[in-house]
Amino acid sequence: MIDTFLLILGAYLVGSIPIGYIIARLYGIDIRSHGSGTIGATNVARILGRKYFFLIFALDAGKAYSYLWLIGTWLTPEVLAGSAAALVLGNTRSIFLYFSGGKGIATLAGIILYISPSTWLLFVAVWLMLLISTSIVGIASVGALLSTMVSLVLYMPLNSLMVAVLVLLSLWCIYLHRQHIVQYLHT
Fold this sequence. Notes:
By secondary structure, the protein is mainly α. It is built from 10 helices and no strands.
């Protein structure tokens, strides 16, 4: 029981590492005071340049994937589900930033890559197609999450707990993008 708690707490703390905030601070910028006010890859790229999008996305996804890989020996279905939820919660509500953060897309992408590389490929393919057609990262992210949720529900041979957690995490990330959705629908 204590091991499970510590592993999930560790996931939250790893998820809370504010990569975008740290990188922007290296340039003397508090990224929360610019653009959308979030610490994610898209906002940092708006301020520091496009190359930072890929760096921050990869690092946020990598920290989630790496944490799950490192604790793989202890990954019961419950610990995996709890750790996945804690990683995304940490990214979106970081203890290091007074419970502010990003929108969780890159962190969730790292989790999906760990759990199902083929589902991750679907996520990336849909994201790229929507980005090319709309030029809006938030809409591409929402569309990729929606397609991922459908894929998970229909095709994943995982236990129902993990599928439910991934769907809930996707819905949480979509909720965090609600402003982008409303703006897109009104254009």
